[in-house]
Amino acid sequence: MIQLFDPENKFWQFFSKITDVACLSFLWFLTSLPLVTIGASTAAFYDFTMRQAQNIEGTVLRAYFRSFRKHWKRGTVLWLGLAAGLVFFAADLLAAWNFFLVRGGVLGVVMLGAVGCCALVFLCCAFYLYPLLVVYEMPWKELLLNSFFLSIGNLHVTITLAVLMILAAAGIFFLSGLFFFWVGLYLFFSSYFLYGVFLHCPWLGMEDGRDDGEDGSSGGDAAPQGDEMWLV
User: Fold this and answer.
1) Is residue 217 part of a domain?
2) Which residue of 17, 118, 146, 209 is most buried, as measured by CB atoms within 10 A?
3) pLDDT for 223
4) CA-closest candidate to residue 46, choices 74, 16, 11, 10
5) If you compute the radius of gyration of the chain from its CA atoms, what whole number of angstroms results?
């Protein structure tokens, strides 16, 4: 009974993380209102939740806005690229579907299948882009290639992330007034799966990392190794 009220209890630790996620979700909503800032907001959210997976998240407000400033440029560029890709594949799918309805036949099926497969690969890669962006310092080419190889090489995780996104979409549909909280829950739970993937992919390489703490001061202890390594 005493352990139930122990702040180190797993239940209270999880509850504390969910509370942080609720605050982050509201911050994500506010900082995403200009729309063009969605990329930086998502990068800042993932930066915090990837730290949550390692129990080193720090203070919500300070960590979030610090990461928002840090990933502003690359997060925005990535968001604009993803938005352009979504529009491109949506237009291609619509065109392929109309072609299939008008012409039909093997050519219509092949065209629709090819466009559908390319769109599916694009979406699978998108699951990994922002986590890779905030965890690793790598050029755009490596970022895109790693997202592709991780999505294909960890198909079970990719499917799990897709299921989580569908569940979040269902939550948004039925409780649209709290849509930002469902987005936050998706980012939170997906971070734990993605962190596990990164730990088991040593070929990604580890950067010297953020040797500064959440408050901007240098960490006094060396980064832990193995499964405890801070992935940046």
Assistant:
1) no
2) 146
3) 34
4) 74
5) 20
How many domains are there within the chain?
Answer: 1
196-224 per-position pLDDT tens digit: 999 887 766 544 344 444 444 333 333 33
| 114 DSSP β-pair partners | none
Q: Give the CA dihedral 123, 127, 130, 136, nearest 10 degrees.
A: -120
Question: CB–CB of 89/118 below 8 Å?
Answer: yes
CB 172 within 8 A of CB 182: yes
- pLDDT confidence bin for 162, thresholds 50/70/90: very high
* pLDDT tens by residue, 12-25: 778 888 999 999 99
Three-state DSSP state, 43: helix
Does residue 99 fall inside a structural domain?
A: yes
Q: Does 228 map to a domain?
A: no
Task: Name the residue with higher pLDDT: 98 or 225.
Answer: 98
End-to-end CA distance of the chain: 39
Distance between CA 166 and CA 168 in Å, rounded? 5
Cα gap 42→65, rounded to integer Å = 12
Question: How many residues would you count in the chain?
Answer: 232
pLDDT at 3 over 60: no
Helix axes 38-52, 10-31, angle to 10 degrees: 170
Give pLDDT tens digits for 36-56.
999 999 999 999 999 998 888
* Residue 98 dihedral angles phi and psi, to the nearest 5°: -65, -40
Question: Is there a domain that residue 114 lies in?
Answer: yes
Rounded to whole angstroms, the Cα distance separating 125 from 127 reads: 5
* Residue 195 structural domain: 2-205
